[in-house]
Amino acid sequence: QSALTQPPSASGSPGQSVTISCTGTSSDVGGSNYVSWYQQHPGKAPKLMIYEVGKRPSGVLDRFSGSKSGNTASLTVSGLQAEDEADYYCSSYADTNNWVFGGGTKLTVL
Amino acid sequence: QLQLRESGPGLVKPSQTLSLTCTVSGGSISSSSYYWAWIRQSPGKGLQWIGNVYYSGSAYYNPSLKSRVTISVDASKNQFSLKLSSVTAADTAVYYCARPLDFYNSSGYYYYWGQGTRVTVSS
Question: Residues A36-46: pLDDT tens digits?
Answer without folding.
Answer: 999 999 999 99
